[in-house]
């Protein structure tokens, strides 16, 4: 099972910087960067909720589930959380 993160795409669509998103969500830039790059093992629902509120999106817009049997799109490699 793989979870792919599309936070960078949503942020680009909204023209929002990492620093702005971190400030509005109420977490450090370092933690937001770790979320964005997929260098986390878990995310709190409260943090996911805050990100979705700020970006005006649904969790499914940010997260994508891939079964182990599915081929990973080369453009999505390294984005999993």
N/C terminus separation: 11 Å
Number of domains: 1
Across the major sheet, the strand order is 1-2
- Average pLDDT reading: 88
Report the principal-axis shape. Answer: globular
Order of helices and strands: EHHHHHE
- Tell me the name of the CATH class: Mainly Alpha
Instruction: Give me the count of strands.
Output: 2
Please compute the radius of gyration using only Cα atoms. Answer: 12 Å
The share of residues in extended strands comes to: 5-15%
Low-confidence blocks of residues = none
Named at the architecture level, the CATH assignment is: Orthogonal Bundle
Keywords for this entry:
mainly alpha, 81 residues, single chain, globular, 434 Repressor (Amino-terminal Domain)
What does this structure look like?
It holds the Pfam family HTH_26. InterPro entries: Cro/C1-type_HTH, Lambda_DNA-bd_dom_sf. This is Helix-turn-helix domain-containing protein. The chain has 81 residues and is mostly helical. The protein has one domain: lambda repressor-like DNA-binding domains (434 Repressor (Amino-terminal Domain)), CATH 1.10.260. The protein has five helices and two strands. It has a two-stranded antiparallel ribbon. Helix 2 packs across helix 3. It is globular. The protein starts with a strand and ends in a 15-residue tail after the last strand. The mean pLDDT is 88.
């Amino acid at each position: 099972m793989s979870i792919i993160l599309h936070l960078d795409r949503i942020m680009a669509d909204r023209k929002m910087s990492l620093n702005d998103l971190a400030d509005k969500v109420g977490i450090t830039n370092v933690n937001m960067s770790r979320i964005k790059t997929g260098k986390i093992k878990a995310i709190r629902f409260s943090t996911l909720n805050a990100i979705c509120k700020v970006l005006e999106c649904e969790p499914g817009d940010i997260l994508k589930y891939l079964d182990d049997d599915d081929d990973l799109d080369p453009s999505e490699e390294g984005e999993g959380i």
